[in-house]
């Protein structure tokens, strides 16, 4: 995941709706684009995290053998500190980092 978390806020930000419809001329279409991008980001982060945590998986499911792994905890904390996918998607959209098209508009 190559999202620069330093430019994306880690908490909710009040947005001017007029900024969100600049790329599409339609606020609802912009929200759809942003939500689809947020879903893509969330899936990417989940796959990346699952891959890293899979390295710590044991072959047995015995609860007595579960132990605290400092590296595993640090990886989890890192992902918890990342900005939410929706915030990253909004930032990507506002900085023209998202490619999107509307086939219905193209047919007109």
TrEMBL record:
Question: Does the record carry Transcription as a key word?
Answer: yes
Keyword Transcription assigned: yes
GO:BP terms for this protein? Answer: DNA-templated transcription
Q: Which UniProt keywords apply?
A: DNA-directed RNA polymerase, Transcription
Q: What is this protein called?
A: RNA polymerase Rpb6
What species was this sequence derived from? Answer: Sphingobacterium corticibacter
InterPro entries in UniProt: Pol_omega/Rpo6/RPB6
An example GO CC term for this entry is: DNA-directed RNA polymerase complex
An example of a Pfam family matching this protein is RNA_pol_Rpb6
Q: Which residues cross the membrane?
A: none
Molecular function terms, GO-annotated: DNA binding; DNA-directed RNA polymerase activity
Q: What is the lineage of its organism?
A: Bacteria, Pseudomonadati, Bacteroidota, Sphingobacteriia, Sphingobacteriales
